[in-house]
Amino acid sequence: MSTRDTVLAVLRQSIDAINAQLPAARRLGTSPDQALVGAGSGVESLTLMGLVVDIEDRLMDAFDLELPLADMLGLPLEHNPFRSLDALASELAGRVEAR
């Protein structure tokens, strides 16, 4: 499995874990174009922070390294990896491979 595929699996596992705590109407999708920030994402700030922490923990388990993600949340939307699962997976795979 490639680094990117492993990262995508981590992201989907984290979303599944968060979704287990949410009512059906607020659950997140796992498609590559699922937005996590921005207008229309439907993700509340507390849900997003819980997701970020879960992703960080799972990345630590999968790759044995710390990748702080909260700093990426403040980026402008056009550069923000949280604009889609696909963009986030690409960004995180690049960071993993760079270490």
Task: Describe what this molecule looks like in 3D.
The relative contact order is 0.20. The mean pLDDT is 94. This protein has helices spanning 3-19, 45-63, 85-98. The longest helix is centred in the middle third of the chain and has 19 residues, at 45-63. The two termini are 18 Å apart. The chain is mainly alpha-helical and 99 residues long.
Query: What fraction of the residues are assigned to beta strands by DSSP?
Result: under 5%
Major sheet summary line:
none
Overall mean confidence score, pLDDT: 94
Secondary-structure-derived class: mainly alpha
Radius of gyration: 13 Å
In sequence order, what are the helices and strands, one letter per element? HHH
Fraction of residues in helix: 40-55%
Low-confidence stretches: none
